[in-house]
């Protein structure tokens, strides 16, 4: 049986490269969506046949019109539906009867309006599935392919964009029109431009796979309002990047956390949807952008120039201040200034004024014309220590801006090293910028934006081969024990495991659990404390008590048997006073780890990305400082180490200010074991290990407290 993915892949080719198109619901009324789509297809010089379909018109735009799509005598590759949503299902049914396999449903009035719209969307999806048909939409702007072999503008956008190598996907049609206008002003071209709307059938996942194999696309940009299947998105991104090397840049709305429900665990309260998206994108190799300008700043650096082989750059400027600012930005972003060879230095010294700075950054002085820029550019490109060149210009009264722009384009065309420019200003430099953009020299209004874009390109190309990672296999796991404990608790309708039970689950996955015993009398408590060794810790065990410290249910630093008996009695009295209805199962006695660094590990279930693993600074301050990092399970060793390095307090673990170096490798292993537990046991809704006490390097780590909340409806 052919899979839906295979059907989409085959049918998408006819969406972008149809030989015949039927516009179903066409009319003669200028300024309406149906008419504008026909006009756009004709104006773009589409290399195929156009069939208007309209119940009332015999001719539209000088082309014969058909009452129904089934009346068309010739085969039809692509149907574009612009009928009202209430009758779209009938038009799509006829498309299926006609044998059309690909469609774009422009019409709105589906899931986005709720109520009957949701049912209408289910109806058209069912029809498409019945006929092995694929469609983009509904509620979308349409699709554009600038490839000269097709040149189809199947959208109601105002203009056909320039041909280029950037593929753009958007969930929002309104944003598409703004992006097209923005890109046109900067001469940014596209290979494919797709508004996928409600993604009732073809999703961003299908489109990512299509663009992966599209020879016209070098860079993929995407705007998302929601991530409905985060795991599939991550998998698709990893496949695209690892197999094609194409970067994926994403602009996702919904960064704020208003309306988020409170979570019971530290992990649940700290892992907001946006933080999870950030972590997932990073893990998948996706470059997340903050706004449209940043997205295109990075995109043109990828699309127009070869990637720099190293992070060693040369800066050429006609003003000292911008040169210093660019240097600061470059160093901050992880680039470095190339050290020129003696030969390069000699050439610059001989050919530039005495007042010029011949070291990097090169200052050709404010009165520089195109000839000085030529000397500096040529010298920089020829220097083996330079792998990328930044060109900065500020407009002086004597600056021949257009000629300098042409010189940058001419000189750089002879080299395989990338060049980037920042002509600072607005009105005076406008024509020079236009020259650069037409010659595909990435231009940036500010040098800081240029630096960030180039650093992003360099980092991506360094890391893209490591996107797909291998999960470590542990041979000492006992998943059957953990699953039995969890399923038994769920069968008894238990929402929270006692710490004693939680530790048994963690122990089954090889996490570092201390020896412990459950005491039911003060004598037992003293006996167990003596067996374990002093100092000891005691904690109340009750499925009704989530936060043990809050009810006085924990006693630390127990030094002898008398202390142990007293601690036991104290705990029971405190609980009786503060939470008298709690059913107490006993008091857990365990060894107290008196030294070490406290960190936190956690697990949360996310509706889109499923198993989210957290790491951060532990103890009571975790929600104050929020110094945490996230990854999506499964987490491999490289990702686990990255999680540790990302937090601001990681220097403490590495032995800052004379402190002993912590056993970081034991944390890495604990993260990977927790990740495996997360993927194996969907019964766990939230989990906290807080704190995990990390000893000195080589001495391991130990769980001092653990909390597990269950999903009652899962087994």
Q: How many E-type strands?
A: 29
Write the CATH fold name of the domain at 4-254 and 274-300: Rossmann fold
- Which class best fits the helix and strand makeup? alpha/beta
**Low-pLDDT regions:** 258-268
Radius of gyration: 32 Å
Secondary-structure arrangement, i.e. CATH architecture of the domain at 4-254 and 274-300 = 3-Layer(aba) Sandwich
Our count of helices gives 24
Question: Which characteristics define this entry?
Answer:
seven-stranded mixed sheet, 715 residues, 24 helices, Rossmann fold, 20% strand, single chain, six-stranded antiparallel sheet, alpha/beta
Q: How would you explain this protein's 3D organization?
A:
- The protein is α/β, with parallel strands linked by helices and 715 residues long.
- Among the domains are: 4-254 and 274-300, Rossmann fold, CATH 3.40.50.261; 305-466, Succinyl-CoA synthetase domains (Rossmann fold, 3-Layer(aba) Sandwich), CATH 3.40.50.261.
- It is 39% helix and 20% strand.
- It is built from 24 helices and 29 strands.
- The strands form 6 sheets. A 7-stranded mixed sheet has the order 9-8-11-10-12-13-14, with helices on both faces.
- It is flat.
- 49% of the residues are buried.
Map the helices and strands.
Elements: H1 4-16, E1 20-24, H2 33-43, E2 49-53, E3 59-60, E4 63-64, E5 78-81, H3 85-98, E6 102-105, H4 116-130, E7 134-136, E8 142-145, E9 152-155, E10 163-170, H5 173-185, E11 190-195, H6 204-212, E12 219-224, H7 230-244, E13 248-252, H8 266-270, H9 273-284, E14 287-289, H10 292-304, E15 312-317, H11 320-332, E16 336-337, H12 342-351, E17 362-363, H13 370-382, E18 388-393, H14 401-412, E19 419-423, H15 430-438, H16 447-463, H17 479-491, H18 499-508, E20 516-519, H19 522-532, E21 536-541, E22 554-558, H20 561-578, E23 586-591, E24 597-606, E25 610-617, H21 622-625, E26 628-632, H22 637-646, H23 650-653, H24 664-680, E27 684-694, E28 701-703, E29 706-710
Parallel strand pairs: 1-2, 1-5, 5-6, 6-7, 10-11, 10-12, 12-13, 13-14, 15-16, 15-17, 15-18, 18-19
Antiparallel strand pairs: 3-4, 8-9, 8-11, 20-23, 21-22, 21-23, 24-25, 24-27, 25-26, 27-28, 27-29
């Amino acid at each position: 049986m052919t899979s839906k993915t295979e059907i989409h892949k085959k049918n998408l080719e006819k969406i972008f490269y149809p030989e015949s198109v039927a516009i179903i619901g066409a009319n003669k009324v200028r300024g309406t969506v149906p008419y504008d789509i026909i006009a756009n297809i004709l104006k773009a010089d589409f290399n195929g046949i156009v069939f208007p379909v309209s119940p009332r018109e015999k001719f539209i735009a000088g082309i014969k019109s058909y009452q129904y799509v089934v009346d068309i005598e010739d085969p039809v590759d692509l149907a574009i539906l612009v009928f009202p949503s209430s009758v779209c299902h009938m038009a799509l049914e006829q498309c299926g009867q006609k044998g059309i396999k690909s469609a774009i449903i422009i019409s709105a009035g589906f899931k986005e309006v709720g109520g009957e719209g949701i049912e209408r969307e289910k109806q058209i999806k069912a029809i498409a599935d019945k006929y092995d048909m694929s469609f983009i939409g509904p509620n979308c702007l349409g699709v554009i392919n600038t490839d000269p072999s097709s040149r189809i503008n199947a959208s109601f956008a105002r203009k056909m964009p320039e041909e280029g190598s950037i593929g753009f996907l958007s969930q929002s049609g309104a944003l598409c029109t703004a992006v097209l206008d923005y890109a046109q002003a900067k001469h940014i071209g596209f290979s494919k431009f797709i508004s996928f709307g409600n993604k009732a059938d073809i999703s961003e996942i299908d489109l990512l796979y299509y663009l992966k194999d599209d020879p016209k696309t070098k860079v993929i940009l995407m705007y998302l309002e929601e991530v409905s299947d985060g795991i599939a998105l991550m998998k698709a991104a990893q496949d695209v990047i690892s197999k094609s090397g194409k970067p994926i840049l994403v602009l996702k709305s919904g960064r704020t956390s208003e309306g988020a429900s409170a979570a019971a665990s530290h992990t649940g309260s700290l892992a907001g949807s946006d933080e999870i998206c950030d972590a997932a994108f990073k893990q998948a190799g996706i470059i997340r952008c903050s706004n449209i300008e940043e997205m295109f700043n990075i995109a043109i650096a990828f699309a127009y120039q070869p990637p720099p082989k190293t992070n060693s750059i040369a800066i050429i400027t006609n003003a000292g201040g911008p040169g210093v600012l660019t240097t600061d930005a470059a160093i901050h972003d992880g680039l470095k200034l190339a050290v020129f060879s003696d030969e390069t230095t000699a050439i610059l010294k001989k050919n530039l004024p005495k007042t010029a700075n011949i070291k990097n950054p090169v200052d050709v002085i404010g009165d520089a014309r195109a000839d000085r820029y030529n000397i500096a550019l040529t010298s920089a490109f020829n220097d083996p220590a330079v792998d990328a060149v930044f060109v900065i210009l500020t407009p002086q009264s004597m600056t021949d801006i257009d000629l300098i722009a042409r010189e940058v384009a001419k000189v750089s065309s002879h080299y395989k090293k990338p060049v980037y420019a920042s002509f600072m200003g607005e009105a005076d430099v406008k024509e020079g910028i236009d020259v650069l953009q037409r010659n595909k020299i990435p231009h940036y209004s500010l040098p800081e934006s240029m630096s960030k874009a180039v650093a992003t390109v360099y980092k991506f190309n360094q890391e893209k081969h490591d996107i797909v990672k291998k999960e470590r296999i542990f041979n000492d796991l006992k998943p059957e024990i953990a699953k039995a404990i969890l399923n038994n608790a769920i069968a008894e309708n238990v929402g929270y495991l006692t710490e004693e039970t939680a530790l048994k689950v963690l122990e089954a996955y090889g996490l570092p659990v201390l020896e412990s015993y459950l005491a039911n009398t003060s004598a037992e408590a003293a006996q167990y404390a003596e067996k374990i060794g002093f100092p000891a810790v005691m904690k109340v065990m009750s499925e009704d008590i989530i936060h043990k410290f809050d009810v006085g249910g924990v006693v630390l630093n127990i030094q002898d048997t008398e202390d142990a008996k007293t601690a036991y009695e104290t705990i029971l009295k405190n609980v009786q006073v503060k939470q008298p209805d709690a059913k107490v199962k006993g008091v857990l006695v365990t060894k107290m780890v008196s030294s070490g660094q406290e960190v936190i590990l956690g697990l949360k279930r996310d509706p889109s990305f499923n198993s989210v693993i957290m790491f951060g600074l532990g103890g009571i301050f975790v929600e104050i400082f929020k110094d945490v990092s996230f990854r999506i399970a499964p987490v491999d060793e490289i990702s686990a180490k990255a999680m540790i390095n990302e937090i601001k307090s990681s220097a403490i673990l590495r032995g800052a200010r004379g402190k002993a170096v912590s056993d970081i490798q034991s944390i890495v292993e604990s993260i990977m074991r927790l990740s495996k537990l997360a993927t194996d046991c969907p019964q766990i809704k939230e989990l906290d290990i807080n704190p995990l006490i990390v000893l000195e390097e080589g001495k391991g780590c130990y769980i001092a407290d653990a909390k597990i909340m269950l999903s009652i409806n899962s087994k």
